[in-house]
Amino acid sequence: MKNALIIIDYIYDFVADDGKLTCGKPAQEIDGFIAAQIEKTVKAGDFIVIASDSHEKNDVFSPEHKLFPPHCIAHTPGRELFGATGESIRNAPGDLLLHIDKTRYSAFAGTPLDLKLRERGTTNLYLAGVCSDICVLHTAVDAYNLGYKIHVYEKGVASFNAEGHKFALSHFKNTLGAEIV
Hints:
alpha/beta
């Protein structure tokens, strides 16, 4: 497997209207696209990683809790995959799928993601999810620093901040050399 689809933070708290830290409509609009990419990736026999934010309630040491209201608390509905994306993942074969809990913006920070990708000979990462200018961006920067070829699905990323989203797309392409698909 040389390709992997990494879906970042496409969970209830970041996507649903009543999510704790939602991107709202822009995130909801990419649901069908991400679900279609999951199905395409499964058909190709490539690897899928679900990287989801996870925090402990009242964790005073989490830097995110100093910047944002409590969100993505472990063992709560806020961490459930959203919509058609969640349905598509439930139908994906287990041997092609890895769920990673993350406590920082990047899916690589403090997780076994790099090891799991290298075990499979992965060289190309296809990124989707939210927020394009926070967690997707930080994941892309780490992927770049680790030597992966980065592809970002323009129709598969979103943010609550239109200017931040525009900046992130430019940064992916012009600074990280990512292919915007």
